[in-house]
Amino acid sequence: MRAVGPVPAADAEDGDPALIVYTSGTTGPPKGAVLPRRAVAATLDALADAWRWTARDVLVHGLPLFHVHGLVLGILGPLRRGGSVRHLGRFPTEGVARGLNDGATMLFGVPTMYHRIAEALPGGPGLAEALAGARLLVSGSAALPVHDHERIAAATGRRVIERYGMTETLMNTSVRVDGEARAGTVGVPLPGVELRLVEEDGTPVTARDGETVGEIQVRGPNLFTEYLNRPDATAAAFTADGFFRTGDMAVRDPDGSVRIVGRKATDLIKSGGYKIGAGEIENALLEHPAVREAAVTGEPDADLGERIVAWIVPADPHAPPGLEELADHVARRLAPHKRPRVVRILDVLPRNDMGKIMKRALGTA
Ligand code: MCA
Ligand code: AMP
């Protein structure tokens, strides 16, 4: 059936849903974060303030358009500001150089992209000049390694600035254009965002000593309203006074800058800037006939930040499944970026008295 008639009038309220973006948790299938129109507008206007983002800006990026980074910042951002965007289709470093040399003023990317840029700089004539000429180089979705930050700064004279966000919160903090882009900091809370660090028992961390660690909690117009059809998960995500528990652990520097030092959940993996729940991959692996038991962990990777490792107890010890077979299985069932990059075969998984897999013990197995 074909819909006919006029386009409905746009008389939606600020709190009405604009987007539902799915994001992985530690267990079960991904949850749909319902993002209201208010959140999209608030986050983009706050970034405009922090970055002096205007209609004169031309953005270049090669981010996927099914996540907040590529879609909200990378497409709705230029639409709201009235500027323009050139999407690279894919992310080759040559495309970045072409885009920036051709008048683009801003580059958005995940750390894996900046790592590949840092690797290509010595051999890529024109790339350093292109980056040097940009008004703003912005990294987000995962931590930008200090080594890559410094290599880019040394070759181009430009410091990549970092901003910190989540699917549920859109953007929380950023290094400001008029601030200091120190490697390893994600800057200060954006206008309108209340941010606090809290200890395990809920006590606020007030020290700005660059050392006392607490969980980041945020409140503001940038937040999602709920997980779709998951009132239980929504309730668990918020404190009684309306702050969202990010699960990210951080310290504050004396100037108020936030430095993220880790995550509460070991079962969340950030690979290539994608958030991936270990439980989801374990469930997929267990559906493979050659797998008896499975555990998934993330381990450091210079390119991807973390790579997905599958620890497998095979159904038949004499015929363990191979990496390609399991990677294809997960890629087909979930998504290609969720596929394991390494498979390690074990006789048994280390378990505690309760039968729970001891993932920390796997790192040294
Ligand atoms: C490989 N491929 C396969 C298989 N192996 N397909 C099927 N079966 C297999 N076994 C395909 C992949 O689908 C992909 O195809 C191509 O081979 C290369 O895959 P991969 O190795 O994963 O890609 P890569 O070159 O390593 O990609 C690196 C990347 C990518 C470009 C940095 O990881 C990326 O785009 N990351 C961005 C993530 C992101 O936007 N995160 C934002 C969420 P094809 O090329 O056709 O796809 S976080 C967020 O939004 C918050 C709010 C925030 O703070 O930003
Ligand atoms: P997602 O839910 O896919 O939107 O991922 C959000 C998570 O990405 C956050 O909770 C952080 O753990 C991480 N993240 C985003 N930006 C940064 C950043 N600049 N530095 C470190 N971690 C980041």
Class from secondary-structure proportions: alpha/beta
**Poorly predicted sequence stretches spanning 5 or more consecutive residues:** none
- Terminal Cα span: 58 Å
Mean pLDDT: 94
How many β-strands, per DSSP? 20
Radius of gyration: 22 Å
For the largest sheet, list the strands in their spatial order. Answer: 4-3-5-6-7-8-9
* Amount of beta strand: 25-35%
Helical percentage: 25-40%
3D shape? globular
Keywords:
20 strands, binds adenosine monophosphate, binds methylmalonyl-coenzyme A, 7-stranded mixed sheet, alpha/beta, 5-stranded antiparallel sheet, 365 residues, 10 helices
Commentary on this structure:
The protein contains ten helices and 20 strands. It has helices spanning 37-51, 68-81, 93-101, 111-120, 127-133, 146-156, 231-237, 278-286, 323-333, 359-362; strands at residues 17-23, 31-36, 58-61, 84-87, 106-109, 136-139, 161-166, 170-174, 188-189, 194-198, 204-205, 214-219, 226-227, 244-252, 258-263, 268-271, 274-277, 291-301, 305-314, 342-345. The protein has a seven-stranded mixed β-sheet, sandwiched between helices. The protein has a five-stranded antiparallel β-sheet with strand order 11-10-12-14-15, with no helix packed on it. A three-stranded antiparallel β-sheet has the order 1-2-13. Helix 2 links the parallel strand 3 (58-61) and strand 4 (84-87). The mean pLDDT is 94. Methylmalonyl-coenzyme A is lined by residues 63-64, 67-70, 91, 110, 112-113, 140-141, 165-167, 272-274, 327-328, 331, 336-337, 339.
At a glance:
This protein has 10 helices and 20 strands. With 365 residues, the chain is an alpha/beta fold.
